[in-house]
Amino acid sequence: AFDSDRDSNSLMPKASVFEDKNAGTFTLDVELPGVKKENLDVRVEGGNLSIKATRKTKESEMTYERSFHLAEDLDTENVKAALNDGVLSCTFSKKKSAEARKLTVE
Q1: Are 39 and 28 in contact (CB under 8 A)?
Q2: 42: alpha, beta or left, given left = phi > 0 and alpha = psi -120 to 50?
Q3: Of 31, 57, 68, 92, which cross-links 74 as Cys (Cβ 3.0–4.6 Å)?
Q4: CA-to-CA distance for 30 and 103, rounded, in angstroms?
Q5: Are 29 and 91 spatial neighbours (Cβ–Cβ below 8 Å)?
Q6: For residue 47, how many C-alpha atoms fall within 13 Å in the half-sphere facing its CB?
């Protein structure tokens, strides 16, 4: 459901994708240790999900950047994003038109 690209001037965070077939959703988890919500920029644009984050300490600043190409059957208008314990979770539903349905044979 996702293809990854990255900028060579920043760190690429680890990411995992999970599918919940019963709910018809995909969840993308991205590890962003030490990142605060105010230092996080998440965008869906032109079929891509872009994540930029900065972790600031007294001694240093670390930048994470990663983008994902989204499958066409994902609903990009209703994405749920949450940051918990250093993991950004973005949950996408499948578009209604992409869901399997039973056909009646006449």
Answers
A1: no
A2: beta
A3: 92
A4: 38
A5: no
A6: 6
Q: Position of tokens 């930048």?
A: 63
**Token reading at 88:** 């950004």
Phi and psi torsions of 97, nearest 5°: -70, -20
Report the C-alpha dihedral over residues 22, 91, 65, 38, rounded to 10 degrees: -150
C-alpha dihedral (21, 25, 26, 29), degrees to nearest 10 = -120
Instruction: Provide the whole-model pTM.
Output: 0.80
Per-residue pLDDT tens, the chain, 106 aa: give them: 555 554 445 788 999 999 998 998 999 999 999 999 999 999 999 899 999 999 988 888 889 999 999 998 899 998 999 999 999 999 999 887 756 667 788 8
